[in-house]
Design goal:
- The protein is α/β, with parallel strands linked by helices and 234 residues long.
- The protein contains eleven helices and seven strands.
- It has a seven-stranded mixed sheet with strand order 4-3-2-1-5-6-7, sandwiched between helices.
- About 4% of the residues have low confidence.
- It is an enzyme of class 3 (hydrolase).
- Its cofactor is Mg(2+).
- It comes from Candidatus Nitrosocosmicus oleophilus.
Length: 234
């Protein structure tokens, strides 16, 4: 009876042929990935704080209606001024480290924000993110026209958020795009506008929450302005 010969398989071969499960993490931008809010910086810079605050505090307006009106207030501002404004806001503490950790562990990383794509793309590039969803502020001849293109994903899925960027819609979109099961997604945000994606994701985290609505509807809350604390929930 012949002997069975066992040929060891090199460990590097086993590692190289293992299938790494793709996962996904979506960050809000203002107050989450950056230490401030773009519209507040622009408003102060161009003396628009009162006008913008009046729109934001109007209870008769839905979220997307506020976004449209605020865009009209920005008419005439130079594209470069918006880029300079987003550049002036510091990245959140350890944002680069947490993004790096996620990428090393098989996550697609990105921004879902109801701010503007011209700004979100700057932040996405700084942090080397995979995707970015935001409103399209219309620029012509280097200046804001006052018009804006909004995806309004809530109309397509029946979400009750009624904001310009339905974050639940975009989270689901990117999960499908990258072949990620929704239970393998993470959503991180700081205001009521993030609630629909935080509740939809496999893991939702309220980071430095700014209102009682998101506090009430979030199981996981970080009160310290340091994104590395996300690892406490992993």
């Amino acid at each position: 009876m012949g002997e069975h010969i066992i040929i060891p398989i090199p460990i590097y071969y086993l590692i190289s042929t293992m299938t790494v499960k793709t996962k996904l993490v979506a960050f809000d931008m203002d107050g989450t990935l950056i230490q401030g809010r773009l519209i507040e910086v622009i408003s102060r810079k161009f003396n628009l704080t009162d006008k913008v605050s009046l729109i934001q505090s109007d209870p008769s307006l839905l979220g997307y209606q506020k976004t449209r009106l605020i865009a009209s207030v920005l008419k005439g501002i130079k594209e470069k001024e918006i880029v300079d404004s987003i550049d002036s806001i510091p990245i959140m503490h350890n944002a680069d480290k947490i993004v790096s950790w996620f990428r090393k562990n098989g996550y697609k990383t990105g921004i879902i924000t109801d701010s503007y794509s011209i700004a979100a793309q700057v932040v996405a590039k700084k942090l080397d993110l995979d995707f970015c969803s935001a409103n399209e502020l219309i620029i012509k001849d280097g200046s804001v026209t006052g018009e804006i293109e909004m995806p309004l994903g809530w109309e397509k899925i029946g979400c009750l958020c009624n904001i310009s960027i339905c974050k639940r819609f975009h989270l689901t979109h990117y999960a499908k795009k990258y072949g990620v099961h929704i239970k393998d997604t993470i959503a991180i945000g700081d205001t009521r506008g993030d609630i629909c994606m935080i509740k939809q994701a496999g893991l939702g985290i309220a980071f430095m929450p700014k209102d009682q609505d998101i506090i009430r509807q979030s199981k996981n809350i970080i009160h310290n302005p340091d994104l590395i604390e996300v690892l406490n929930y992993m």
